[in-house]
Amino acid sequence: IVLTQSPVSLSVSPGERATLSCRASHAVGSNLAWFQQRPGQTPRLLIYGASTRATGISARFSGSGSETEFSLTITSLQSDDFAIYYCQQYMTWPPFTFGPGTKVEI
Amino acid sequence: QVTLRESGPALVRPTQTLTLTCDFSGFSLNTRGMCVSWIRQAPGKALEWLALIDWDDAKYYNTFLKTMTRLTISKDFSKDQVVLSMTNMEPEDTATYFCTRVDMANIFASDVWGQGTLVTVSS
């Protein structure tokens, strides 16, 4: 299953909202996760099951969608939200596949 | 607290075999649903899933990678440790290698990551 993310990069001002998209080549149900990777850091799980926030994740992050169309919304962007965001499907595996990422820039 | 830590050589020569170790704590690979995955990330590139071993010692590989036939994942039953071996290393294998926990009984995604280990393949 191929995941496509859009846009490739997104320029947002602090305090604004960002909406990132992930599209799957085949239906994955709700078996989709989102990860955040800050510069020089390890990826961190944000969302699983398409819409469930992982432990300790701010309510400013929300996931939605199912089957082939998914989105990650970040409200009130803060400085440490500027990062690369990856989606990953775990419906049909192996392999688990990741999208190419969306870079959220100031 | 769940932690994972990768270790291995920072530099390998082309054609050599890479062996990476993932030492973990805070969970047991003998518990149903628990798994450890290896994921890598070439410099400036996206994440790429490589392999997974589960609580029942079943092993899964990324069959879409040409590297698949070169990979072996295993666990040490006497220690909380998972090992990834990759033979015939090539410069294109230069990447940061992460091990992660996957809890298939609950989240199913990689919920805890090691800090990663950078492996450079160069002569």
Quick one: overall form of chain B? globular
Low-pLDDT regions of chain B: none
How much of the sequence of chain A is in beta strands? over 45%
Rg of chain A, nearest Å = 13 Å
Q: Name the beta content range of chain B.
A: over 45%
The number of distinct helices of chain A, counting runs of at least 4 residues, comes to 0
In angstroms, what separates the terminal alpha carbons of chain A?
31 Å
Helix and strand element order of chain B: EEEEEEEEEEE
Coarse shape of chain A: globular
Describe the sheet with the most strands of chain A: 7 strands, mixed
Give the SSE string of chain A.
EEEEEEEEEEE
Structural class of chain A: mainly beta
Mean pLDDT of chain A: 96
Report, as a whole number of angstroms, the end-to-end distance of chain B: 40 Å
| Largest sheet data of chain B | 7 strands, mixed
Oligomer: heterodimer
Radius of gyration of chain B: 14 Å
3D structure, described in words:
The complex is a heterodimer of chains A (106) and B (123). Chain A contains no helices and 11 strands. The relative contact order of chain A is 0.33. Chain A has strands at residues 3-6, 9-11, 18-24, 32-37, 44-48, 52-53, 61-66, 69-74, 84-89, 97-98, 102-105. Chain A has 106 residues and is mostly beta strands. Chain B is mainly β. Chain B has strands at residues 3-7, 11-12, 18-25, 34-41, 47-54, 59-61, 71-76, 81-86, 95-103, 110-113, 117-121. The chains are: A mainly beta (106), B mainly beta (123). The A-B interface holds A 31, 33, 35, 42-45, 48-49, 54-55, 86, 88, 90, 93-101 and B 37, 46-49, 52, 60-65, 98, 107-111, 113-116.
